[in-house]
Amino acid sequence: MAHHWLDSPTHHAWLDAEALRLLAFARASRLPQGFGNLDDEGRLPRCALAETMNTARMTHSFALAHLQGVPGCRELVEHGVGALLGPLRDQEHDGWYARPEGHGDSGKAAYLHAFVALAASSAVVVGVGQAQALLDAVIRVIEQRFWCEQEGGLRESFSRDWQQAEAYRGANSNMHGVEAFLALADVTGDSRWLARALRMVERLILNQAAADGFRVSEHFDEHWQALPDYNRDNPADGFRPYGTTPGHAFEWARLVLHLEAALQRAQQPAPESLLPAARGLFDSACRHAWQVDGAPGLVYTLDWHDRPVVRERLHWVHAEASACAAALLQRTGEARYEGWYRCFWDFIGEHFIDRAQGSWHHELDPTNQPSARIWGGKPDLYHAYQALLLPRLPLAPSLASALAM
């Protein structure tokens, strides 16, 4: 190809404009106790409730925006940090609820704590006053409760008082653990976080996925034995779907490249198998998930014979696919990744970007019409916003630290 979009000033301007459009839409998600879930038109429903996941994701995203120089975002970071230190935190037993106390007991999930750590690390880079206290608190909980040195991974979840542990291990929570640990390594200067991230990648990608055609098993028992039939009766679950999830293969591939770059930046040995693993994950996801049912787009899930199960197209899957293509293009310079990068953005531009009501449709049906089988409304800024930033940043350090350089 004549040139890379990653080197095009016009493409950079388009990414900037789309990022600002997403930010303008997302500002309406602010609630007294954090950030809530917006509907299709960008409004908070009457019964809107702050949730830890989106409060952490919004805090992280607004921190990135502030570091880019977008006015008005620092105060939103401060609001998010205050919510994560206040109503969303368990003041009695420590750790974080899924939603404020009194709105159901969901226990304590590694997935959520990974996002709290990501938000805290980004807020520290911004320099928000309470951010260091939040970072110290979430690091303590992760090290005392979730990280298992013997397993080289994160335990999944506990009851509110930490007395009951779930007999389950999840690749999704460990994947976001890798993301958070890379950020923690940058912010704390503690290389143990890189070593921990590598151990999760070794278990789930370099060993398990590499031995199975780069299919990423999502569900395991407490002894890390795969559970291939998990949620067979609930295949469209938003967090623990049955089968394999191509979107996670893209996300893992990108994180593998970030890990490789972070290890090299820290002058630590990086396994030679990291780049081949990233290639394998990307190739497998493209081969089995793109346009496999006759219509363009990436399906949500596949069975163990690589056949589509849930055919809806989710916005976060395509955001991660484009970000992964950009990372592989940056790492290798190979034209085929440029082709995929353009392909994914063309699809996003035609089908996901909602130019009438704002933001992106979060889900499309198998005919690429807006739907809400899995995800209703437009609550998520994190995936799309990061996809607009990552193509122009180095593979290491992590996003906030890279923007602050």
Structure explained in plain terms:
This is AGE family epimerase/isomerase. By secondary structure, the protein is mainly α. It is 50% helix and 5% strand. The chain contains 13 helices and ten strands. The protein has a two-stranded antiparallel sheet with strand order 1-2. Strands 3-6 form a two-stranded antiparallel ribbon.
Topology:
Elements: H1 9-26, E1 30-31, E2 34-35, H2 52-68, H3 74-85, E3 108-109, H4 110-126, H5 131-146, E4 147-148, E5 153-154, E6 157-158, E7 169-170, H6 171-188, H7 192-209, E8 219-220, H8 246-265, H9 274-289, E9 313-314, H10 315-332, H11 335-352, E10 363-364, H12 382-389, H13 399-403
Antiparallel strand pairs: 1-2, 3-6, 4-5, 7-8, 9-10
Helix pairs in contact: 1-12, 2-3, 2-4, 3-4, 4-5, 4-6, 6-7, 6-8, 7-8, 8-9, 8-10, 10-11, 10-12
